[in-house]
Structures are given as structure tokens and as C-alpha cells.
Design brief:
This protein folds into three domains: 104 residues, Rossmann fold, CATH 3.40.50; 69 residues, 2-Layer Sandwich (Dna Ligase, domain 1), CATH 3.30.1490.20; 67 residues, D-amino Acid Aminotransferase, Chain A, domain 1 (2-Layer Sandwich), CATH 3.30.470. Helix content is 34%, strand content 24%. A four-stranded parallel β-sheet has the order 2-1-3-4. The chain has a four-stranded antiparallel β-sheet with strand order 5-8-6-7, with helices on both faces. Strands 10-9-11-12 form a four-stranded antiparallel β-sheet. A hairpin with a 5-residue loop joins strand 11 and strand 12.
Length: 286
Amino acid sequence: MIHIVAPGRRAVALYRNPAYSPNQHRSNDTLILDVTVARLAARGWGIERADEGDIAAGRVPASDWYLNMCQGPAASEALALAVGPDAVLVNAPRSVLNCHRHRMAPALKAAGVPFPETEVISSNDDPAAAAWRIADGDSTALIWVKRGDVHAQTSDDVLRVTMDEVAAVVTAFRARGIERVALQRHVPGPVIKFYAVNRGRFFRWFVTASTPLAAPPDERRLQQVVFAAADALGLEVFGGDVVLQAPDAPVLVDINDWPSFAPCRHDAAEAIASYVDAQVPRGERS
């Protein structure tokens, strides 16, 4: 049910298909949108809820504002066609589609974002030549094999393997119906997870438990890389992973639209709600 509290303050919250929220992310992805909705309601917004399955089927509620966690191509394409030209979507369907790896890798390379050597191939192709190019002829290199479309749906969608194992893993991807596969050279170093909103409105980073830091990152340089990637893809609410080759040498290895913000959910929801609310034209504020 839609509760219109004030002119210009009616939005639709679009919840992600559980298929794109594996394991513990399922509840966390729901919670970040729930908390954001609550923060907006406290600011006088009326919010309607819809599921990604409804959007993919073309059942898109009419609104001028959308909080968009849909991640699949069907929903993104349907949403882009259904909304009016003046609608505000956070994130826009185009930016969501840009996060699919077959689009992400060339876009980040073109923008000059530090990103590992990556090639996206058909799962029907022999991956040997691409793997050797990525490894630069190093037979001891480790390669990440990732589905080349949407983000991981199971733990088998992102695997680190040796050069000798690449072909068998790509064959297994093909057997599961995955048509595009991204091959990415492994970058050694501690991994940092980051969460962000717009151009620095919110930014947090966390070290993964398995890779402690010898020294903290140069946060100015870290934010430069992260927000350059977001600009290249058109993202407003996003998160991802960076490998620190040195404190001032971050390498982005993944970025995704509207993550769960699990370690900082309430602060992030407040920042997202504030960002959305600030975009309402002054003349429409109650």
C-alpha cells in the first residue's frame, strides 16, 4: 500500500531476487533496504514495496522515485523501459547492468581504474589462449574464474585455480548453463572490503579476517580508485573489494551495486536516505 505523505516524497523500494543474494546475503540484502525505507519514512516519505520478480514480469509500480536493488538483466531492462524520463532511480538500471562483468571489465579498463588483467570469453571457447595472455606466460600464475554476467549466486561462481585447472573449471561453468566466463589474474595482497554512497557522502572500509594489514591504506588514494570506478559505471550506492599491493597502491578486484552494508548497515541506511531526501526539489518539501 502506498502512503503519500507529501508531494514529491513517494518512492518504490525494489527488493532483490533471492537468487542474487546467496547464503547469508539473503537476509542482509533485505535488511539494508528495510532500514533505508524506515529512515525515509521517518523523513515523511511514503514507500511502496515490490519484488524483482514483479519488475522482471513488467509489473512496475508507477512512481517518480525508486530504490533499486534489482540485479538481474530481465528486471533491469524492464525497469528501464517502464519508468518515465524524469524518474529518479538509485541505482539506475544502466549502472546495474554495467556491473555485470562482461561490461564492467572493459569499462574500468577504459577509465584507467587499477584492475587486474581480465578477459571475458564464451564458455564454449577454449580458455587456454586467454588464460596464457592474462598470466603473461607465467605457468605458476593463479587465475580467478568467475561467471561473466551477474554476480556470484553460489560459491562455485567464483573460483581461484591454477593454470592447469582453468579448462576444467570453464567446462563446469558451461555445464551449469553459464554462457560467459571472466578469467582474471590473481593479485596477491591483503583484501579490503568497501562500502560507499555517491561521491564521498559515505565511505567505509574493512579488512577481511583472513588477510590482516601490515599497514593501513592511504585512504585518499583508496577513495580515488573506488569513486573513479563508480563514476565509470554510473553507481550511486555500491561496494566491493580491493587488494592492497602497497598502502598507496589499491587494485580494485570487484564492485557491485547496492551491497548489504552488513558491517555498517544503520549508518549506511541513514546516508542513503539522506542522499535520496536531499534530491527532492525545495519547492516540493513539506
